[in-house]
Amino acid sequence: MEQANTLCHDGKSKGGVLAYLERLETGVNRSGKQREELQSAQAVGNALATKIRKLRCLRDKLRAEVKQRQARVKASTTSVDPDQTVEISEQEVLERKQKNVKAILQAYRFTGLSGKLTSRGVCVCINTAFEGNLLDSYFVDLVIKKPLQIYHHSVPVFIPLEDIAAKYLQTDIQHFLFSLCEYLNAYSGRKYQADQLQSDFAAFLAGPLQRNSLCNLLSFTYKVDPRGQAFPFCARLLYKDLTVTLPTDVTVTYQGTEVLSTSWEEQRAAHEILFCTKPLHQVFASFAKKGETLDMSLFS
Amino acid sequence: MDAGLAEVRALQADIAALRRACEEPLAPREETSRVQKSFQEIYQSDSEGWKSSKDLKSQLGHLESELSFLSTLTGINIRNYSMKTEDLTSTEMTEKSMKKVLQRHRLSGNCHMVTFQLEFQILEIQNKERLSSVTTDLNIIMEPTDCSELSEFVSRAEERRDLFMFFRSLHFFVEWFEYRKRTFKHFKEKYPDTVHLLEGASSHYMGIRSASRPGFELLIIWKIKIDEEGKVSPKLDLLTKVPRRALELDKNRVIETAPLSFRTLLGVLGIEAALESLIKLFCTEENN
């Protein structure tokens, strides 16, 4: 005990370690749990040491590989006749580099935004997609001068380009382009859904699909089962937020004079929810699937 | 144990950097004066069939500045790209003047400290009326791999085969990540005794405690969420640790309502000012 006290002035930790060692020396029986703890700590320590060894090995291997490549490069440029081969390999190197850079510039379209420098400034290309389908692209030609101006563009007139430009163009080009991207991608997505409905699921429609140019107000009459006696429902989809591809307001109504039975009323309500949560063409695809296993009792 | 883990992380970073070095195209790094001289010679003795190197050089310079512009604009730095195409048009399709081509793309690069490798396939079907391009497969490998906030988002992007959302959200995520790191670092430097970053500035929590108030501790948890649509937003929470006696004295239940009050404070002051005001609570007795 005294020993522990005299060493206390060096801090608690020293007294603690000494006490621990003393306990080891006197060979006090450790409980099974203590032994296990020690063993598991050792095991973790060992696993860590092995991992470190493996990683060191891999790193050394890669270092050697990089050194080899560098040596190869040096050899190829310093080996033979300086005048001739240096000239050719320099040319080759530049051409290879140019090819590489050109390829990478092409690859930027996969980020959704790409562009080219022009004599006036820059022409940015915005690509749109919906659910993995690559859709239309639009361009905005910017003139770099104060204030920044849009020289030329292919953005449809119903997209609020001027509003977005007024908000962001002068202060933050990136924000301007990202915001425009949002609007254009959403428009493309809505248009895609409406087009798919018209082309692939025309059989379900009991009349023409009414749509505006922004594709944010759709109205149509449909039957869940195109061949059968299903009741025609009228759907009205409104996308108040122009940056989304799912409607914000959906109303499904029945235009007939009879009162709807409970099962049809349930369906009507369910459809309202469906249109809000799934893309339009997918809703109809699910109708088509269900049609294959339709329960005839619904027609009673 | 900590030293061991730190070494593991350092080794992993080294390995990632070496792998990248192995990917770079073989090119001499230095331009010696000997090479410069031969450029002059090439320019002067311009032979037909070869574009003048100087022209090529300026062309390359132009392309590289385009690249640097795009990299700054998108926040994404693409280092490598290659593509292979496979013609899948059957004879039946050719008769109907249809065409089917499968493109295999491979793309790699980085967004600040995050590196990515993408492999994806695009199926192009051309018939009389239209051309459709669909991404049919997407595989994403990201480094660092231990960022849980990112891995969920990556699987979602792969499932949806949504390249654009992946890149856009990655850019914003990294921006928020860097901002959080800068903010934590700033506070740690300004209030070294009060602010504690147990796992460094890159982690998602910051502790506030002071020797002048033993037993009390505030823990700020700052997560970066990516929602279903790919929108990135910060989510901050406050945890409190308080001695039992203090809880008993807390008649107004300030401690209990602290997490909610914190959210309100964030809305009023913004992130930095809110955090600083909490840190200052622990500093009032120290001389500023």
UniProtKB/TrEMBL annotation, chain A:
Keyword Nucleus: yes
A GO cellular component annotation in the UniProt record: Mis6-Sim4 complex
Record key words, sorted: Centromere, Chromosome, Nucleus
Localization per Swiss-Prot or TrEMBL: Chromosome, Centromere; Nucleus
The keyword Lipid metabolism appears for this protein: no
Main location: nucleus
PANTHER family linked: CENTROMERE PROTEIN O, INNER KINETOCHORE SUBUNIT MAL2
Protein family: Belongs to the CENP-O/MCM21 family.
The protein's name in its UniProt record: Centromere protein O
Source organism: Prolemur simus
From TrEMBL, chain B:
InterPro entries, per the entry: CENP-P (IPR027801)
Protein name (Swiss-Prot/TrEMBL): Centromere protein P
PANTHER family linked: CENTROMERE PROTEIN P
Gene Ontology biological process: CENP-A containing chromatin assembly
Regions crossing the membrane: none
Annotated Pfam families: CENP-P (PF13096)
Gene Ontology CC, one term: nucleolus
